[in-house]
Every structure is written in C-alpha cells, then in structure tokens.
Amino acid sequence: MRNKILLLGSGELGKELVIAMQRLGQYVIAVDNYENAPAMQVAHEYEVINMLDGVELDRIVKKHQPDYIVPEVESIRTERFYDYEKQGYNVIPSAKAANFTMNRKSIRDLAAVDLGVKTAKYKYATSFEELKKGVKFTGIPCVVKPLMSSSGKGQSVIKTESDIEKAWNYAMEGSRGDLMEVIVEDYINFDYEITLLTLTQNNGNTLFCPPIGHRQERGDYQESWQPMTMEDVHLKMAQEMANKVTKALGGSGIWGVEFFVRKDGVYFSELSPRPHDTGMVTLAGTQNFSEFELHARAILGIPVLDIPLVRNGASAVILADNESDKWPTFTGLKEAANYKNTDFKIFGKPTSRMYRRMGITLAHGTVACSELVLKAKEIAGKIKVN
What we know:
- Strand 10 and strand 11 (about 205-210) form a beta hairpin.
- The longest helix is centred in the middle third of the chain and has 18 residues, at about 230-250.
- The termini are far apart.
- With about 375 residues, the chain is of the alpha+beta class.
- Helix content is about 30%, strand content about 25%.
- The model has no long low-confidence stretch (mean pLDDT about 95).
- The protein is globular.
- The strands form four sheets. Strands 10, 11, 12, 13, 14, 15, 16, 18 and 19 form a nine-stranded antiparallel β-sheet that branches. A five-stranded parallel β-sheet has the order 3-2-1-4-5, with helices on both faces. Strands 6-9-7-8 form a four-stranded antiparallel β-sheet.
C-alpha cells in the first residue's frame, strides 16, 4: 500500500507528517513557496511554487498524479480542490473542509449560522471604515483577525479606539493569500482556552484526544500542555460541537478545534483541518499516537480504535530574536539535554526573523502539567538561535 502524497505546505507540522507517512511506507512530495522548507528536507521530492496560482497547482497535480492531496497551510488556491475531487483525487480531509477552513468567514458562518454553535458575536470588514463599524457593533475590547492567516499572525486586541487603525494595519501585514478582509469579534473574557484534537475516520468512529491547554502571546502559542483539567460537562460540550462541525465538513483526518471556556459554557473559536501547532505536545508521548501519526492513519484508512492518555506532557516554543537570511545555528543544546524526561526538536527553517518559531522543547512525566510547562520553558531558555 504505497501511496503518493502531495503535501501542500512544508512547515514544521508538515515535516512531522512526512516522517509519520514514511514510517507507514508512503511516498511524499512536499510543496511550498520557498526552498529548503522543513518538510522538503525529509520528503522524497519537492516543488517550489506559488500555491495561490491555480495554474501552477493544476500543473503539479497533473505532473505527480497523487493518491492524496494534503493541505498544510491556508494560502492555497483551495477552490481548485473541488475540481480535483471531480477528477477522482482524494483531498484531505475534503474539498469542502479545506475551502471552508482556509477562510475564517466560511467556517464561522457555518458554525454560528448554519449549525447554531455558540461563538462570540462578530462582523466582517474589508476596509478601515468597515472595521470601525464592526468595533461599534461588538464593543471594546474586541479581537481583530485576518480572514486568512496562520499561527496567529495579524491578530490583535483592540482595547481603546486609538487601537483600531493599528489593528487594521497589523491584520493586513499578517494576512496570508490575497484576501484583504478581517473578522472583528467580541472579546470573550475566558477562564482558559483549549485545543480539542478530533479524529474523523472513514473506517472508524470519530475520536477525541485528551484536551490540550495552551497560552498565547502575540496571537501565537507559547506553551501547550496535555491534559487540560476541565469539568466533564464542558468537555462534553466541546466534543459535541467539534463532532457537529467536522461532520458537516466531511472527510477523514485530524482536526484542531479551538474553544474558549468559562463558567457559563464553551465557545467555539476556530478549526484547522490538519495537525495543530499546540498539538505538538503529543510528540512528548502523551498519547498512544502523536497527532501526526493519527492524521497519517486517518488519511490512509488505517483504523484507530482509541486515543488514551499515556502520560502528562508539555511543550514550549524556541523563538528567534533576530532576523537573518543565513541558515540559523543553535547554541545551548548540550545544556538543554541535561534534564530528565525531556526532549527538543529543531525544525530546520532556513532563515530566521523576530519571534519566528524555530523549534520546541518537550517535557513529560507523572507530575502536574504546570510543573512540566515550567520545565519546558526553562529548557527553551537554554537554547539560543544564532
């Protein structure tokens, strides 16, 4: 059963997916818009194209004739996926899912309007003037996000009216693709937020990983831990919402479904139809399969019967603090290795910029997740990006 996988997007999440696929005997072509992307370094072949160019996408699909087309980022001309499905290609998790979730407008309207899932109140804006009207509707404080972005880029919180213009400009700078539109939503004063990794299977039941807690900064995750302690009633609410949304979108694979949780209930936030950055904590052996192994199995139709918690774990990011076009080097790796029940992973990104995620540290054990987070952060502080 050797299939050809066309991976669209070749960052650190894609790299781990390539490794998981190869351990199942698959052949992978990694695609991105720059040379030496992390997943390209471990794939069988690679292509460098502008994935927003539909003609270029058509060309490489025709060239490689893949068994599965697997998107890993947002900035893709996903409208082409419907044509690929009609031509007999398998789009993961489905053409509908890829289209809806690559754009916050589609997925939010599906969840809030079509499915009646509880979300923050929101408006869309295609100009600074429209954003001001949206802020008036939601009230201050509120959150502004580009409709297309990744890893929290372009997201900010408006706390005063003087922040509105800055938020618009920051969102435009952080937007991926060619869509210049934002969503402005009510700021939910949540107690905590979670990622509920949800596994849909063509050959099995929908399963849920133990909930993952995480902390955000500048719209990007800094630490994550598993499991996140939460009330059973809130976990059940999140599972029901995740099941409803993923079922409506269809297909098989791992989904990163994000929720805000507070005393009055659970609010749907966002959804990604692929491995989630906060889910890298599963590389600490917290589950029987990492999120990447789960995604690979679901894509290939290899059934997963359950996803038990094996041990507690935490992850922390290793960030660059400078900008350079040269291959980064790392110091402090030996010092970072002097901790029991830990690990670190360097992603292999060919350049660095301020706050770019260059690697992660991992800690596991039977102690509380709060202790493991502190340990992972301490190790991350030992590693410097040069």
